[in-house]
Amino acid sequence: MSLKQQIEADIKKAMLAKEKEELKALRSVKSMIMLAETEKSKGTEISADDEMKLLMKAVKQRKDSAAIYKEQGREDLYAVEIGEAEIIERYLPKQLSEEEVKAELEKVIAQVGANGPQDMGKVMGVATKALAGKADGKTISTIVKSLLVG
After folding, report:
1. Burial status of residue 136 (CB atoms within 10 A of its CB: 0-12, 13-18, 19 or more)
2. Are 62 and 82 in contact (CB under 8 A)?
3. Which of 21, 42, 66, 123 is deepest in the core (most CB within 10 A)?
4. Is 45 in a helix, a strand, or coil?
């Protein structure tokens, strides 16, 4: 079952259960997928990799918004954004822990043959592809910096 079909099925379940927050999050994801399909070409389904990128983008947007709301003391809006992010994260593969990401990055650094901070670009290119959907770019970047500098 494709992600789009899974989301459509879950939208129906949320409608029947009258779960408004879940319904809102799922509808926004479905609209992102449909928009990506129409941009790519006439009604062609997007790849699983593209779906993953869309979901990660949606989660990142919500977490960024939540951080801004928290700074401004808007706990009500913060809770909504975090709730939506958690709903969308259910469709992403399990995120790796920091230790797991560090272990993977050490392998990538050895594979690329990076010696210091000047090789960060080479490492990030390989690492972001290898860890796509399993860790966010900010975490990867932070750990790569600490490994290459340290």
Report:
1. middle
2. yes
3. 123
4. coil
**Distance of alpha carbon 33 from its chain centroid, rounded?**
14
CA–CA gap between residue 75 and residue 71 (Å, rounded): 9
Question: What is the reported pTM?
Answer: 0.74
- How far is CA 98 from each of CA 74, 79, 139, 149, rounded to the nearest angstrom? 29, 25, 8, 17
63-85 tens-digit pLDDT: 999 999 999 999 999 999 999 99
72-119 pLDDT tens trace: 999 999 999 999 999 998 988 888 888 888 888 888 888 888 888 888
DSSP 56-118: HHHHHHHHHHHHHHHHTT-HHHHHHHHHHHHHHHTTSPPPPPHHHHHHHHHHHHHHHT--SGG
Phi, psi of 44 (to 5 degrees): -75, 140
Q: How many CB atoms lie within 10 A of CB 81?
A: 21
